[in-house]
Amino acid sequence: MGTIHDGFTASNRIRQEGMDALKDVLEALQDDFKYAHPSFSPKKLETTHFITWVIIPKEVAPNGRTLPARLLLMTSYTGSKREHLRELAEVGLSGLHEVYKHCEEYHYSEKPSVENMLNFLRKSSIKNTFYTGFQYVTKDLVYKQNQLRYAIQEYLDSDVFRAGLEGLTPGQVRKRIQDHVRTIPDLSWALKPYKRSFGDFLNLYGALIFWLFILGGSLVLGILYPFFHHPLMLVGLIIFCAFIGLIGILLVLLRMDENIPYEPLEEVSDERIYDITSREIHPVKNEMSVISPLKRGFIRRFFLAFTLRIVPIVRAFSYIPTVHTARWLQTDGGRRLVFIAYYDNTSEGYAHDFVDSTKRTRNLNLIFGHASGFPATKWAVGGGGKDRKGYITGVRTHQKITGFWYSTFPELSVLNLENNKAIHKGLFGNLDEKEIKQWLLRL
Amino acid sequence: MAAQTMKWDSNTTLEKEDIQGLLVRGYSKLPYASYHLLRFNDLKDAKSYLHESITQVTKASTSPDDMAVHLAFTYDGLKYLSLPEITLQSFLRQFKEGMTEKHRSFVLGDEHANAPELWEWGGPNNPPVHALLMLYTKDKSTLEAVQSQHHTLFGHHHIEEVRMLATDTLPDLKEHFGFRDGVSQPYVGGFSNKQPGENEDILPPGEFVLGYKNWYGQYPDSPIMETESDADDLLPSYPNNLKVKDFGMNGSYLVFRQLSQDVYCFWKYMKEQAPAASHTQKEAVKLASKMVGRWPSGAPLVKAPHADDVQYANHNDFNYWKEDFNGLKCPIGAHIRRTNPRDSLLTEKTDLESKEMVLKHRILRRGRTYGTPLAESMKTDDLMNAEDDGKERGLHFICFVGDLIRQFEFIQNAWVKFHKFGGLYEDSDPLIGTHYQKDGHVTDTFTVPEEPVRKRYKNMPQFTAVKGGAYFFFPGIKALTYLSRP
What we know:
The complex is a heterodimer of chains A (443) and B (486). With 443 residues, chain A is α+β, with helices and mostly antiparallel strands. Chain A has helices spanning 19-30, 81-91, 93-100, 114-124, 139-157, 159-162, 170-182, 198-228, 231-258, 270-277, 300-313, 347-355, 358-368, 388-398, 414-427, 433-441, and strands spanning 5-13, 48-56, 59-60, 66-67, 70-78, 125-126, 129-132, 285-293, 323-331, 336-344, 377-378, 382-383, 399-400, 404-407. Chain A has two domains: 5-135 and 264-407, Alpha-Beta Plaits (2-Layer Sandwich), CATH 3.30.70; 139-195 and 413-441, no CATH class. In chain A, strand 9 and strand 10 (336-344) form a beta hairpin. Chain B has two domains: 21-256 and 470-484, no CATH class; 263-359 and 383-389 and 420-466, no CATH class. In chain B, 24% of the residues lie in helices and 18% in strands. Chain B has helices spanning 43-54, 75-80, 85-89, 93-97, 102-108, 140-156, 263-273, 280-292, 335-339, 351-358, 380-385, 404-417, 477-484, and strands at residues 32-39, 67-73, 131-137, 160-166, 187-188, 202-203, 224-226, 237-238, 241-246, 252-261, 364-365, 368-370, 394-401, 437-438, 441-442, 446-448, 455-457, 464-474. Chain B is globular.
């Protein structure tokens, strides 16, 4: 199985008469977070980390256009999308049928075959921009790495390990731990250090390297053009100028849209906020879905689409340490912005992560600056989330109550997952004494 | 050392004539204090009591030498006093819902031993509380006199004293476990003429007092009042909307939690963890200090990592990122590193980014200890050798904030309660966290980073338990006067 962690999103219109029944189905599948419903058992899915079904009600966008009620299915998985969808269709066929019989694009009155369900899911698929805080580990590996850490912890607590520890070098201490792990047959997989494959590297940095090559190369060629007048250099100059020009034009057009009078949102009622936040009952990990029509302005949906294409390219440099996964996407011809995240602890703390840091506020503005009612931005990154109150109001106004959500390993935080991976990596990895000393501090 | 951060316009003048004094000073000159939880039984009487008491209420513009009196109200109390509906609705949601709302209990960690159902006041099984009277005096006789005066007033005005919470000051500013407390307090612009330390951050007054700008350059949410409801034109206009009055101006939100401390259990656990054939008492003090983050004298572990050093007893000019990133001196899960992580949030990439985040979540503490010490000397050796006397003792935790959810609740939830804080796995705050093992979640471990490998202390009992608590509104003098009007 591949180890690339990605997101799948399916979008479907909800039949008006089926809305209430659909809500009931999702609630039944949620099964009070026990996930033991006979027609859908997500715990059996090997490829899947997270699943969300969220209903977006019919609404009127600021430009007067009516946006339809939709059902979004958002999953995250490791491996190939093909395998993931097949597993989803096979394991969850009955549950999927119960859910989608309330959607317009679904034409099966009786439970269809797996192949038909697969076709339906593929046809419903839409593009999303996906972020994950723990890349390149499968669900199985997450489980194993946690098992490994647990076994090491128990050993470190034991008198056997503690005896005669003084005077040992870090390397000798690690050797003790290695020897112990070797004695446990269930941990034989850990003897081989975790290593990211070249494919993983390419997945993370490939697009960035490609675009840096294209743009950097164009710049160099463009600079050389006045001296050598080679046609290739002219092409380089044109490509580079076109790229800069495109960004410039987008920014100027956006600035014009930003000047459209800002329409602040009404305060969200206490009851509504309570209804949302009181569902955050999990001690480690919770979920939020924020879905909003875009502000008025011709260029916004294009600017947002452009931004969402850039995000995956630079994602290697954006690490949000409280976020397990997040995704952004546009629906209804780009007129709606969808954001969902699985994060550590509660949404109040998570939402603050963005406005308590100047850097994150700028990044946030690039995307949420287009959402209806979000405080006005200036040149895409200024203003916006600096208005903390306006930002929080925007988030709460557009936050939806998720119909169904599921996550694997509810007891592990993002930093736990990262640490478990580093423990696995360093246990038999090629480290010098200084690195081993640091590795031991992870335990 | 991270540079000083300042977000305060020094041209801003605080209206100290309208601010209750406890907000700007902790009354170290008034060591005797008592807190009285009140329930009104008649509206006219209640207002009459307030009217008679207002003249005693201490303003921030004076620094009393003999006595200070303060008043605060719960949401139920303000409702009882017939504040207009629009004003009641404009208070913070957390204040309106109250500290014991079910989901809030989850957020604050008021579960298991801390559950409100077990509380002695403020919980669902206790009588309602409408107001809090706070008395501070220079000596015991003055306190008794002023208490007697108010008890007489309670009788005259049919006010029920739901509970009287006494305080007892311990020597050397210590709390009951034997550690110096209250060393770290934020410096708030405009509160005093004292100059801040070289690296001391200056917080904007709007972080704690309504009506002034906060870290975000915004006025904190403040309860409003329609102009026609203020017939005497007592209250100032709202900063962001001149059409309405600002009932909250110069007020604040006061968080009160009675934390019972099991001193015997605390030191028993520390002694039990000491390795066999070791200097048990020394090891016990060391472990306890690791949990606190300071030695008994108050010296921070970051400055005095190996042994207590009284020269650092009042030291507060330190950080973690460069001095102790891995927590080898002060563990990441130590109480003071959680309640004020300074520049060490491991969820950030740099010390400056970390500090930027942390400064948005500070509180102004004004609590006092209660109960007699387990050992009169308050020396750690005596505390750990003392027998369990079964007496009640602890801390009346009191703090002021401008925003309950961003400041108090955030700290309590994300830093104190959350057992995954700073990349940890099973560690809630060792002193005031919620320790339990349930449904695969373990929160009662304390991890001490060491070389070559960490030590884990498991199955920590609950050393403190919440015995009562409530959110209060601490009004400005004008708002208090408004409340007293018939």
